[in-house]
Specification:
It contains nine helices and eight strands.
C-alpha cells in the first residue's frame, strides 16, 4: 500500500500525524509493509534509499548526537574493526533517547563536547561526527573501556597519512583531557 501522503524516509509518529496520516492509516502502512517500525514511535519507509537507516533514525530522535570512538575511527578509515553498535556521544546532562536501535550511548563533558565536532548529512538531516584527531584522543582518553589497541592502531594509521601533524594532535588532547595528552605524547615519542 502506497501512502497518498508524502512521508520522509524516516519519521516519528507525531510527524506522521502532523502530515495528515491517521493512526489507522499508519497501521495500514505497517501491515502492508510500506513502512516499518524502527523504534517506539519511529518509522521508516521500506522503499527508502537511505545509506544508513540507523543513523538517519538517530539524527531524527537525537539531533545533538555525535558519532564517536570506534564508529568515528572506522568512518575515518583509521581502524579496521566492525563495531557491533554505533558509538554516539551526547553532552552530559542530556537525556538519552530510548530507542531499540543498535546504539551505545556515551556522555561527554559539555565543556569539551564541541571540540573536533563536525556534521555530516544523513538522509537530509545533520548528524555530528568527531574528526580524526578528536576520535584518536577519545580512544586514548577512554582506553580503559575501549582497549589500548584501538587508539594505538588509529594513531599509527593517522601518522602514515600525508600531512599528519603530531603537535596538532597533542594540542587537541590537551584541550580535551590533559591525561590523554601525556599518554599520546609518550606513545608519539616511541613511534617517532
Amino acid at each position: 500500500m502506497q501512502s497518498p501522503i508524502p512521508l520522509p524516509s524516516t519519521f516519528t509518529f507525531t510527524q506522521a500525524l502532523r502530515l495528515g496520516l491517521t493512526r489507522r492509516g499508519l497501521q495500514a502502512l505497517l501491515d502492508s509493509g510500506a513502512i516499518e517500525r524502527r523504534a517506539r514511535g519511529l518509522f521508516a519507509r521500506t522503499d527508502s534509499v537511505a545509506d544508513d537507516p540507523e543513523l538517519a533514525a538517530v539524527a531524527l530522535v537525537a539531533p545533538r548526537a555525535t558519532i564517536c570512538l570506534a564508529s568515528a575511527l572506522v568512518r575515518h578509515e583509521l581502524i579496521d574493526a566492525i563495531p557491533g553498535s554505533i558509538d554516539l556521544a551526547l553532552p552530559r546532562g542530556t537525556r538519552l533517547p530510548k530507542t531499540g536501535l543498535p546504539v551505545t550511548w556515551h556522555r561527554f563533558a559539555a565543556s569539551t563536547f564541541e571540540i573536533g565536532r563536525r556534521t555530516i548529512d544523513v538522509d537530509g538531516r545533520k548528524l555530528g561526527i568527531y574528526d580524526p584527531l578528536r576520535s584518536i584522543v577519545d580512544s586514548f582518553r577512554l582506553r580503559h573501556r575501549e582497549g589500548h589497541e584501538q587508539g594505538l592502531e588509529a594513531l599509527k594509521a593517522w601518522l602514515r597519512r600525508r600531512g599528519s601533524q603530531p603537535a596538532s594532535l597533542v594540542a587537541v588532547a590537551r584541550a580535551v583531557d590533559p591525561r590523554a595528552a601525556s599518554a599520546i605524547a609518550r606513545v608519539l615519542e616511541i613511534l617517532l
